[in-house]
Write a structure and sequence with these properties.
By secondary structure, this protein is mostly beta strands. Helices cover 0% and strands 53% of the residues. It contains no helices and 11 strands. The protein has strands spanning 3-7, 10-13, 18-25, 32-39, 46-51, 59-60, 68-73, 78-83, 92-100, 106-108, 112-117. The strands form 2 sheets. Strands 2, 4, 5, 6, 9, 10 and 11 form a 7-stranded mixed beta sheet that branches. Strands 1-3-8-7 form a 4-stranded antiparallel beta sheet, with no helix packed on it. The protein is globular, with a radius of gyration of 14 Å. The chain starts with a strand and ends with a strand. The model has no long low-confidence stretch (mean pLDDT 95).
């Protein structure tokens, strides 16, 4: 079955950096657009960044533009999110998403928690 497994979260001080990684299995990764979302308790899931299957045209939420960078490695079936200049407002559970370019299939990981202390 398809699995997306996130890693790399943790506790970091404001101004610090983290790199999140999402490993995909049991899917033809190059046929999926990928993205990162985040969710805090009591809040709706929020878009963070996305990247098409060709590893081009990254698109970011205004709140993270200039601080976060999304990238993917189709050979390794992974998508990363480099996060710099973290603020307490970035505290959330970060989830990886893969969306097929061929069908309506979409998949989510369980998420990795990022906590930024002030």
């Amino acid at each position: 079955q398809v699995q997306l497994v996130e890693s790399g979260g943790g506790l970091v001080q404001a101004g610090g950096s983290l790199t999140l990684s999402c490993a995909a299995s049991e899917l033809t990764f190059r046929n999926y657009h990928v993205g990162w979302y985040r969710q805090s308790p009591g809040k709706e899931r929020e878009f963070v960044a996305r990247l098409n299957r060709h590893n081009s045209n990254p698109f970011y939420a205004d709140s993270v533009k200039g601080r976060f960078t999304i990238s993917r490695d189709n050979a390794k079936n992974t998508v990363n999110l480099q996060m710099n200049g973290l603020t307490p407002e970035d505290t959330a559970n970060y989830l990886c998403n893969a969306r097929s370019i061929l069908t309506a299939d979409g998949y989510w990981g369980q998420g990795t928690q990022v906590t930024v202390s002030s």
